[in-house]
Amino acid sequence: MGRKVIISCAVTGSIHTPTMSPCLPVTADEIAQSSIAAAHAGAAVIHLHARHPESGFPSADAAHFMAFLPQIKAHCDAVLNISTGGSSVMSLDQRLAPARAAKTEMCSLNMGSMNFGIFPLKEHYGDWKHEWEPKLLDASRDTIFRNSFEDIELILSDLGDAHGARFEFECYDIGHIETLAYYLSKGLVQPPLYVQFVLGVLGGIGASPENLLAMKNRADRLFGDAYEFSVLGAGGMQMRLATMGAVLGGNVRVGLEDSLTIAPGALARSNAEQVAKIRRILDELGFETATASEARDRLALKGNDSVAF
Ligand code: KMH
Ligand code: ZN
Prior knowledge:
The protein is an alpha/beta fold. It has one domain: TIM Barrel (Alpha-Beta Barrel). The protein has 11 helices and 14 strands. The strands form 4 sheets. The chain has an 8-stranded parallel β-barrel, surrounded by 8 helices. It has a two-stranded antiparallel sheet with strand order 3-4. A two-stranded antiparallel ribbon has the order 7-8. α4 runs parallel beside α6 and α9 runs parallel beside α10. The chain is globular, with a radius of gyration of 17 Å. The N and C termini lie far apart (37 Å).
């Protein structure tokens, strides 16, 4: 059944807020422990955001990342992939600070500006732990997640050329795949490209099997064997689209950043529980799971002895 499947786990993100799940990692120690457990459960790549330890508000403070990066690196071999997306309410400079400081092997790169609607989540909760939570959700009605061509080119040069970071290219729609093809044609990105098909964010393509197939068909036509894809289904479609992605020859992304549940209506107790579930599904379907070193080889990563933590 072809290539081993690379499992990525996005452990906390900036979409979900502490009230939505008591299992969402917030402090540096919670993020570290959850990442290590997810790696031990089979995740080859850990995608990382940080939060203010007391309030849980999304943070791009490099110090908040440095509070957990060394601990994770000391206890597992996973590829540590730092977000440059941060949160839609951050400036680009703020968003890039952690990856610049950490000189990480891998970081995300969002392939286009878009509306990023998390306000629909608000209607499901009431008794908020922190007053910032409903405000941040409401703010997404009128906030543009900015990723201009200039922003993309700055990230490519500042983190790619300067530090040897390679990218998880976040594509939320077909147009984002076309933008990546433009940069490939200009020689500003180098194969093998790692393309994350992101489905189910309000403002991006919907989380459906036919949309996943459309994204894959377009990417196949544009990139041929110069790319590998992974599938991120936000919310309730996470496991189903990840499973379809593996069957289509791709890799998978799970984690509480993207979905808080382990099954319809049931909160996941941990990131590791989601990793274990997708791994079980992959095993049952006859897929092997890639190790971190296999992922490094396939994605041409620089290795974690040249990171700054
Ligand atoms: N929040 C996910 C839908 C990033 O951090 O740069 C995509 C993501 C983007 O993880
Ligand atoms: Zn992220």
